[in-house]
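Quick note —
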Amino acid sequence: MSQLTEFELIAQYFSRQKHIRSDVLLGQGDDCAVVTTTPATQIAVTTDTMVAGVHFDAHMPARAIGHKLVAVNLSDLAAMGAEPAWLSLAITMPEVDTKWIEDFTAGMYELAEYYHCQLIGGDTTRGPLTLTLTAQGLLPEGQKLTRAGAKPGDWIFVSGCLGDAAAALAVQQGLLEATDFVRHQLEERLFYPTPRVALGQAIRHAATSCVDVSDGLVADLGHILQRSNVGARLFLHQLPYSKVMLGLDEEQRRDFALFGGDDYELCFTVPEEERGALETSLAHSGVSLTCIGQIDKQPGLRMFDHQQEVSAQGRGYQHFAAAKDSPKG
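Predicted structure written out below.
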């Protein structure tokens, strides 16, 4: 363990990112950072905290922790249609482990620089390992996506695949058996989620509402229904799965997809008149999109397997309720 002081720690590890944004007038080194924006631009702000023993444990490499801390914040910005810009990090550590910090910052900077984000400040303190990141992004005036705009008749889309991260956690907890290959594939989704930043910006013109899937599809789609004062029909037979998830029992993978969380995909609604143009414009984006349901007037979420309505009450709920206080990865 190192005997670095707080300011040496900041200088060596948290001030080494190159200056990559012209809108950062003053970064680290003063009491505040100073940034500038252009006219007709709004700022979206989000904050997430990851706590050792709650959100991650010894299974998770330090590099992955740095990556995921940035990814979960950028996923929130993506859900608003924002372009990521600035990051602030508050890190509390019981001691200075230079190897851990080296790997953690490598994962953090790698993803931040990919999305042209600059770390502009923060704080370091001693205590139980806790990581808090604030991300700020830019939006053209009046073009933000929210959870409140869904209308009856809108189609519900989700990006990517669902359930892999929850399945990875189940494998780690001994609740699901898997080969080393499958475990590795699942843990890649749990440890290194991909924030759908470009997709969020691409759907600003067409989507009526949007949310990122962090707490499970049912919970997060429920936020849209509540804020928009609508209901929905969800088509279970259309849920998108990765190849490794298709090897699981159907009920297992449905539970992971519906209730598991940590997918960090985007779930959004699109009116009928925009659906064709959206699907065409995003056909070569590299991100798969799946229509999984439709908004309607009847309150609540109803689930269908083909034409048969399915009661999902309690399915998967106890399993994940029991896991909520366990490390999420």
